[in-house]
Write a structure and sequence with these properties.
Layout (H helix, E strand, L loop, with lengths): L2 H32 L3 H9 L5 H8 L7 H8 L2 H13 L1 H11 L3 H12 L8 E2 H11 L4 H18 L7 E2 L12 H7 L15 H14 L9 E6 L9 H4 L3 E2 H6 L2 E3 L8 E9 L2 E7 L1 H9 L3 H20 L4
Antiparallel strand pairs: 1-2, 3-5, 3-7, 4-6, 6-7
Length: 323
């Protein structure tokens, strides 16, 4: 066997041994901390698969691409039209949820559109495989995914579901809104009061759960998310959020010759973000509700895609004679 091939095999074997040690330590902790049966957990994890494709996907997320490619994934005519249909079918639920939680229908529908194409693509990985792979075989995020695996097993016990049953994304996110297990346990809602929080098949529960999450993270009712701005000089560059990382006053931006596409109250506090287009940056002033969307996914690209899809859905619905 060539030296490099032998070395590679040795490294793979070492990684496998390390994953096995991590798994054993995790089982011991679940037994001690939460009184799980060691035999039952051993049986479950004997059926878990460590998946190479999960490791590949976590290393190259969609948010790694430039904005001018990223937004085109979500701002399509098909996604907008399908979202309008979803809105029409669930208009009553969206209205009731919006009134209760203060989150606009278009934001809720846009999250579902970006996450799972309105529930059509909820993921095909077994959640326990995805979480175990990332907890035991992906050291950069092992602490985070170990906690999510812990939460997942607690969730399955609470919901009386086999841990081998739920499916989701390569990162272990579940259902129409793609909740991680920790979020599912805290924020998932049984809106139709049927005794189950079904985020895979029940749009009512999924809609209310998104609104529940946003409200808990500080969504401000009837407040803006973002405003497009235009720079008349290069002075704006010193105020970009990646340079100063603080809120800006409206007059600070105006002094840098930044013009707003629509007015904001003078007391508003914003952050200035630049999104790379093929012919220069697209500038946005974002407010606190934008930061709330980022609590759902930390990427500014994600939050902007949700916001822009929400506005496209709203415009389509307002202009269509069938809505």
């Amino acid at each position: 066997m060539p030296v490099r091939a032998a070395l590679l095999c040795s490294l793979v074997a070492l990684a496998s041994c390390a994953a096995q040690r991590e798994k054993s330590a995790f089982i011991d902790a679940m037994v001690a901390k939460h009184r799980f049966s060691e035999d039952e957990l051993e049986d479950v994890f004997a059926q878990v698969k460590i998946r190479d494709d999960v490791l590949k996907k976590i290393a190259f997320p969609a948010e790694a691409m430039p904005w001018h490619k990223y937004w085109k994934i979500f701002l399509t005519d098909a996604r907008i039209k399908e979202g309008a249909v979803f809105w029409r079918l669930h208009a009553d639920t969206l209205k009731r949820v919006s009134e209760q939680y203060g989150v606009p229908p278009e934001i809720i529908v846009a999250v579902l559109g970006v996450e799972t194409l309105y529930g059509r693509r909820t993921g095909y990985y077994r959640v326990i495989d995805a979480l175990s792979t990332l907890a035991f075989a992906y050291p950069p995020r092992s602490p985070f995914f170990s906690k999510e695996l812990e939460q997942f097993l607690l969730l399955c016990r609470e919901e009386k579901v086999s841990p081998l049953q739920p499916s989701g994304s390569y990162a272990g996110a579940m259902g129409m809104p793609q909740f991680m297990p920790s979020s599912f346990r805290i924020f998932a809602a049984d809106f139709d009061r049927d005794g189950k929080r079904d985020l895979w098949r029940d749009p009512k529960d999924a809609i209310a759960s998104i609104a529940s999450y946003f409200k808990a993270h500080g969504w401000a009712r009837n407040q803006p998310v973002a405003v497009r701005v235009f720079a008349k000089s290069e002075d704006y560059k010193a105020l970009l959020n990646d340079k100063i990382n603080r809120d800006l006053r409206i007059d600070e931006l105006e002094s840098a010759r930044v013009e707003f596409s629509r007015p904001l109250p003078l007391e508003s506090k914003v952050k200035l973000l630049a999104f790379e287009q093929e012919r220069g940056d697209e500038l946005w002033a974002v407010l606190d509700n934008f930061s709330v969307i980022k609590r759902y996914n930390q990427s500014s690209f994600y939050a902007m895609a949700v916001y822009q899809l929400s506005q496209a859905l709203l415009n389509y619905r307002n202009s269509s004679p069938y809505e």
